[in-house]
Design a protein that fits this description.
alpha+beta; homodimer; Maltose phosphorylase, domain 3; Beta-AFase-like (chains A, B)
Chain lengths: 703, 703
Amino acid sequence: MGNLISGPVATSMEPPIIEELDSSASRPYERPHPQETFHQTVIDTDSFYGKIRTVYSERVLKTQLDQLRKQGSYEAFKLGWHPKYDVQKLQGGKCTIYSPPTLFWDSDVGKWIEAACYFLSSPDGKRSPHTAEFISAIDELIAMMAKAQQSDGYLGTYFTVVDKAGKLKNLRDMHEMYNCGHLLEAALAHHRWSGDRKFLNLMLKYIDLLMKTFGPGKNQLHGYPGHPELELAVLRLYSETRDPRHYAFGHYLVAARGKRETSLGGKPFFVWEAEQRKDTFFHASMASIDDGRYHQWHAPLHEQDTILGHSVRALYLVTAASDLDGKLLDDAKRLWSDCVDNKMYPTGGIGSIPDIEGFSEIPHFLPNGHDEGGCYAETCASIACMMVCERLLSHELSGNARDVMERCLLNNVLGGASLDGKQFYYVNRLATCGDENADRSDWFEVCCCPPNLTRTMGLLGGYMWSAKTKGKTISLNVYLYMSGKRIVELPSGEKAAAEMQSEMPWQGRTTLKLQAPEGYDWSVRIPEPEYAEDFKLSPSDLSPQNHVGGYRSLALPAQSTVSITFDMPVRLLAPHPATHQDTLAIARGPIVYTAESYDNTRLEEAHRHFEGLGLLETTTFVEVPMQIGNIPMIGLISQQNVYEKTISGKKEIGSMTVVGGGKKRWGELEEKLRLVPFFARSNRDKGGRLRTMFPRVAVSDVE
Amino acid sequence: MGNLISGPVATSMEPPIIEELDSSASRPYERPHPQETFHQTVIDTDSFYGKIRTVYSERVLKTQLDQLRKQGSYEAFKLGWHPKYDVQKLQGGKCTIYSPPTLFWDSDVGKWIEAACYFLSSPDGKRSPHTAEFISAIDELIAMMAKAQQSDGYLGTYFTVVDKAGKLKNLRDMHEMYNCGHLLEAALAHHRWSGDRKFLNLMLKYIDLLMKTFGPGKNQLHGYPGHPELELAVLRLYSETRDPRHYAFGHYLVAARGKRETSLGGKPFFVWEAEQRKDTFFHASMASIDDGRYHQWHAPLHEQDTILGHSVRALYLVTAASDLDGKLLDDAKRLWSDCVDNKMYPTGGIGSIPDIEGFSEIPHFLPNGHDEGGCYAETCASIACMMVCERLLSHELSGNARDVMERCLLNNVLGGASLDGKQFYYVNRLATCGDENADRSDWFEVCCCPPNLTRTMGLLGGYMWSAKTKGKTISLNVYLYMSGKRIVELPSGEKAAAEMQSEMPWQGRTTLKLQAPEGYDWSVRIPEPEYAEDFKLSPSDLSPQNHVGGYRSLALPAQSTVSITFDMPVRLLAPHPATHQDTLAIARGPIVYTAESYDNTRLEEAHRHFEGLGLLETTTFVEVPMQIGNIPMIGLISQQNVYEKTISGKKEIGSMTVVGGGKKRWGELEEKLRLVPFFARSNRDKGGRLRTMFPRVAVSDVE
């Protein structure tokens, strides 16, 4: 404690409350983030993941740039008037219904720039036919921002153009800190890619303004973001600058959240802030102006025992907490565990309550679609969960966190874009119903998900593994089985390399080639996923006391080759009983499967949305190699027939049936069920319908 | 058409649009309402229903009067300031959050007066120890109202005391017409009981004001009630006055609802009305200011194909429609059928979405409790359903409508008050969860349910049967098997009598004694409920071509005795497959059963809220005579054991389990399940927990 100050300290600012900061806690820069490491890994473009990335670098980035131009956000930093601002002008600039979509435009631009910089950093990204256009757009946008920045450092379109007086007066609703955080992450990405400090310097100036204005000091506003994002971005900045003020600010933003401030009459900040505005409006997802659950300020993080509210806000907050000191890291683990154990779909989808785009209050409320009472599973929430997993893994290897990260990536996240790179999902329901279909959309008024997807795919090399050198031992922790090569820069200036070839996510065959200069050795941790059967490792791993749950440990010489094989038989998964669902999900390895009408035309025509169809729990499946777009994958066909629910028995009011008399409940159809990977749904037709989990047919229930 | 005008026509009012009125449709007064007929039936006080009514006449009415005094509503018509008005004063009288509870005070007073008048009309009610106090209160309240009435006829506390300028300017939210309707029903009841016209004349003056102000005419406001109630009340008034303006007004109020008015620029009335107020606020249950589903103005009734929104509003509207002409009657039938077939619990509970106190958009969304995604089942909604059933039966006998009415009455409605008459339910969940218990409440801020219950119980004789004489034939349609005697006034001035003794709802043994003067005969319709087995009628009924579905028809001489017997074996009911619930409800006759912790202490201690417990669908039950309070009833004990869900198998992320390998899902416990009638729940202890529907255990799923 106390020896952290280095570099300039602004004399006009209250000193950070350093006594709260635990110097024994690992600092973020000691656990390099994918944003800092991704460029060291080249992903094999012919591999599964490589092919997916190509869709992003060659198609998605361009689609998104076009949409930004079309939507108006691209031009927003020119500070002209856009007709979409009119609705707020009529409302006197007040947020009276909902956060208007134009509020987020700054972040949309930021996330696009960030993603573009990631792809421009990679060999495969550099080959994009749109490279010149992207570079030109980045330069143009940064130039706009430089001109748009106010003299005090403030950078934000809405409060520069529409509501000048309202600047930084409604942190709860107006997303200024959210936008700042994304612009900051973009600036860091830009700096790393280009070496240029132009954008970064802009953001440093804005951050200085925010650090001066907000904090625990007597003359500061005790505010924090309504939508968490700035906290984690500032910690990414800290990893770059090593400026303790940046760490302290990130810590403050997380630790202050939800406090009932004595200096504010015992009120939480947002309630006090609304009073200053004489504003009685509260967000539609809040029960009252004091209701902090939606934005996770109902209590300080230490006192939150269950994850609540808007899922992306919650998980961005947890991401930041997982990069801070011991107690906040514990809070992060507790809330993340509640999320993944009690409030997550098998597809890695998170958030079952559409009205609040977030969590049910109670555990195990996981309706698969609108007719079951909800299902949201926002793409951004699964990405956020990956971010938490990665930070937790950076502290401590865990098979559980790894499996969750992979499950999110290969199902809910990967499915977020069509395989032609042109359309996207915001909501990822497990089943359609009524008049719904499973189509993706060209774009969204609130378009946070597509650019979030793109930057995640841009960072993919950083999610693959982490490497750290201590003395002469290179530690390599593998997160994802992928095909790629990583250069490890050694302190001596020499380089080592790890190269993995893997047939995952379709087959367990993997080879890992390690090369280091003489005198070095490797300490490698290899995942043994929960779904892997007959797991074989060559050379054999260390004795079990060196194992981490879900991981095998190997101590290897400078030049080594490791072979891994494992099987992934199809398995049927039952949800927790408290979901009140007696259903089955079908998985093979990390891939969860879904049935779409495209492959099951006759069956689904007779049973719209596959409603009323069930599977025996003894159902087995045949694997079918297939391809959608240019992505090869494995499909499944059931070897047994599907069953349909029969309602036999005397009917009563309320559409109920008298049971008994030995009448059977399920009748066998002459139909098999054809399944595709959930991420690959809705790529081959429009207007399709789907179902992911099917009622379980008990053996005694069939004719 | 056109010959309906009789009595005075206000020259300052636009003529009613009589051309829209179908003169061939039966008028409400041709189908006398329970409010008009109840007093002709004396219910046997020693019978089940009689004992229940005694709780109301001797306890509930008094409890409610005390609560009205305590709450402030009793004094409200003195027009003094009440502290509870302060919150609205601060808001400038505007409805900014929700309809403040004080808005409904007028209706609470009205419903209490109405109920008191019903009980004071009956022999059993007259015996109440509080009779003098009730009569005194009625007189006092009427005197207050006489003084409180404005010179133009307006009668309403809120807009006389709190917001004078806002009178009749926000029909959508401010419940003025709702209050008026209930006061009108009270005035009719008062007149019938006392012969006095004082109260009725007050209300006639108010109705005149409303008929002048609102209507289809060029100089009229095209408004209708935000909360339906006035429509059906005005039709009750019409039955009394036979004044065609009253019928036309009721018809207008229903038919105008949801129209996009050309004279209002194509807007629906409430949108136009809000613009006049320069008011952008809309109710929390609406998606936008144009969203009419909550209040059923999203389209004219003819175009509404599914029942939506707030369930009491919807069903009061349907009640009124069922008393109007052919097309509106068809609309009523369509929406009522959607309600009872697709959106009703086996307990007769209606409304699964707590946030809107109403219907799911989709059919068969019937979560049993909070952890399943909802369940509201407001007491008032089941009462409203009974009201619709009765009106439908008044048009045409139907076993279905009768069964529904009885199911609502004997389960969700009857359970609305504790058997000691002191506490009430607003919400009637089928299962508790989390920190909930099944306790009733002393009162509610919005206390519509208790007085609604009381007036329904006061009217019970009118729900029992209906009688009509044509020539020398007395038609008697039995609705409910009860013990009571009805006098039928014949056109000649003579009297006939029907006396029923029934052991229902516990046993099917019923005797019906009919006595008419010489020369008369009876045409009797006896229910054959859907749950009745081995139904025997003596004398035998007419040949089947005279049958109505669910009814047996008898032609009988002036002096006759009919004997009915039927069995009611316990039956297990499965919900519709589209509910996604594989559960069982337990019923015996019209009574649905529930398990409470009081009778199942050991079992429920180990499985809180009976969570995770299931029943074989072959479970049989032993009947156990019991008594709660002074009400004898039949309880049930399962003859087979209860099962608990076992989670065996490899666990995976997201709390899922890999299935297969022949592991069984249910383990047998050494415990039977004890059940009580749903209406009788929560009478013997505080803090209890309950469950009504249990997962079905398939035979192949047990060890």
